[in-house]
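Case study: Glycosyl hydrolase family 32 N-terminal domain-containing protein.
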Amino acid sequence: QGDGTTGAVWECPVFQPVRSHPQRPKTPGPDPHMLVVCPDHSHYTPVYFLGNYDPKAKRFYMSTASGPYPLDLGGGPQGCTFYAPNVLTNDPHGRLVMWGWCQESGRPGKTKAYNYGSCLSLPRLIWRHPHVPGMLWQEPLPSLNRLRFST
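Here is what the predicted structure looks like once written out:
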């Protein structure tokens, strides 16, 4: 039973284990899981919870999970611009790679009538924050730097 701060319906759920930084040794024990949901109102950003999952009971313990925290701090006057995230789970380097749908806002001219324009975000790495328990850390996928070149 929610309190209404995260909407009435949760769309596009993502449920994945999240490890510490991929270049650091794995911590002992099971990795906590993140549950990412998109609240139904467009002014809400996707939120995540980070907590324990019992694979035998097939249960995520919301009562002890941290969150909800905003997954993306973008947005603006029109609300959320990052929506419906998804993850790549078979990265050869063991990383959790996430991308999402970016909603456009404020299109000029004739395109203003067509409010369904959008694109995919740049991929980002997700892992547990190194210094703040219960929080996630995000950064652009490092290989994106190869797309840059000097003129």
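For the exam, be able to explain this: The mean pLDDT is 81.
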